[in-house]
UniProtKB/TrEMBL annotation:
Official protein name in the record: UPF0178 protein SAMN05661010_03801
Organism: Modicisalibacter muralis
Highest taxon in the source lineage: Bacteria
A Pfam short name: DUF188
Family named by the database record: Belongs to the UPF0178 family.
């Protein structure tokens, strides 16, 4: 069974809760990687991995451990690219698949938006994480887990 890897520093609590329930239900090894302690329930399947604080410390640990066929949950595009290079699959906490076919366009859009912000343009932030986003993530995760069986 592949392992779920979660870039937990920026993962909403609602998405972490979905991941915990899914890991328990499907007996899927799951690692929540963060540079701070995460409150997790006792679990045979879900483990926390705390890394030293520092730029990209959690990302580097995930890249060092992730294997082909594993699933990474992240919105961090450079981390996603590295995981894809290692043969892992990547999904955002909104249920969107990040693939070799779409990641470059997303990186270009992110860079464009950064340029706009640097020029003083107000671009707004990410959309909130509500019921629709939770449902889409849970459904996408369930589809991925079912495909692994």
């Amino acid at each position: 069974m592949p392992t779920l890897w979660v870039d937990a520093d920026a993962c909403p609590r609602a998405a972490r809760d979905i991941l915990i329930r899914a890991a328990e239900r499907t007996e899927t090894p799951t690692w929540m990687v963060a540079n701070h302690a995460l409150p997790l329930p006792p679990s045979r399947w879900v483990k926390a991995l705390s890394v030293a604080s520092g730029f990209d410390a959690a990302d580097n640990e995930i890249v060092a451990r992730i294997d082909k066929g594993d699933l990474l949950i992240t919105a961090d595009l450079p981390l996603a690219m590295e995981a894809l290079d290692k043969g892992a699959e990547v999904m955002t906490n909104r249920g969107e698949a990040l693939t070799r076919d779409n990641i470059r366009a997303r990186v270009q859009m992110r860079d464009f938006m950064e340029t706009l912000r640097a020029s003083g343009e107000h671009t707004g932030g990410p959309k909130g994480y509500g019921d629709v986003e939770r449902r889409e993530f849970a459904n996408a995760l369930d589809r991925w887990l079912a495909k692994q069986r």
